[in-house]
Amino acid sequence: MAGGIAAYKACELLRRLTESGHDVTVVPTASALEFVGAPTWAALSGKPVHTDVWSDVHQVPHVRIGQTADLVVVAPATADLLAKAAHGLADDLLTNTLLTARCPVVLAPAMHTEMWEHAATRANVATLRSRGVLVVEPAEGRLTGADTGKGRLPDPAELFEVCVDVLARGAAASLDLAGRHVVVSAGGTREPLDPVRYLGNRSSGRQGHALARAAAARGAEVTLVAANVELADPAGVTVVRVETTAELHDAVVALAATADAVVMAAAPADFRPSAVSGDKIKKSADGSAPAIELVQNADILLEISTQRARPGTVVVGFAAETGDATGSVLELARAKLARKGCDLLVVNDVSGGAVFGSSDNEAVVLAADGSAREVPHGTKTALAHVIWDEVARRL
Predict the structure, then answer these.
(1) Which residues on adjacent β-strands are paired with residue 198?
(2) Catalytic member of 96, 124, 201, 228
(3) Which of 87, 111, 215, 326 counts the most CB atoms within 10 A of its CB?
(4) Structure confidence by residue, pLDDT tens digits, 329-363
(5) Is 201 one of the annotated active-site residues of the chain?
(6) Is 270 labeled as ligand-binding?
């Protein structure tokens, strides 16, 4: 890690990596040790910590660490570190390691907004990305002192997920979505009945978050439209928060105009109350229930599929089906694919409440050309990568 105040957060990232069974060598810069001392890193990693190329010279650490690593992650990566990495400077053990690494490299910048937005930093980031380095977009929030803005180190738990994703893909890890802007929706919308109650659904947003995280790990610029999701923001992702289907509609339609791909993983409500009570609806003395009239919401997937503001945008929909007297899950899904006009439809059999809130998923990915790809039971991240594989082919 480099010398930024966010170095203390890297302790949590290191702990997660070691506790999940990974062998971690900590390579700080000298300035990083001004924020968190070497004994802390040594205790958490179980290995001695050095900053220069003169320690353990007989083991040639400035070459061996990079040569033998499966992943190099720098968190935090300061503006100075980004500049050195972009220009091939090697004046300490960390920058030497970056030059010798032939494995995937993940850089997680953290700095003040003005430094992140400076033309020199932007040019350095562009150079690194052009070489296949995954530079994670910093988060927005509280910075050093009273300042707030973009430049905050993403949540360590989410950085850990990025690292696990890249490691899991190994040699197959690529930045095939670099230079692409993708939009992902997640969660379930809520339609208010009164100041207290709403109509909603059981979507947790986990699949949408997995899609956003996976796209960011493949180099995409990702905007996540999150409807009532209680999960940490994925690292490197811009999050737009909405509540109702109307808000989801407006956000997705606006973003679709500049998107290379839109994946509608959210569960928007099909209906909303025709009127919202300004006061809490009370129980009646006679025990009768109030009548609630519903009106239909806009069909977001149909609109962005049939009225594409940007030709060539790949549109992906989700279908949560249970099957009924009119047809099986796949029969209903194929009819929906034809009706909606999207390029891909990810079909979940949600009979008995399956999928919702779970870390795992299984699906069938139907394509407009008639093809189908079965995705066996596995993690939602694994399904996300299958979906992005299909999207990348069409892009």
Answers:
(1) 192
(2) 201
(3) 215
(4) 899 999 999 999 999 999 988 776 555 557 788 89
(5) yes
(6) yes
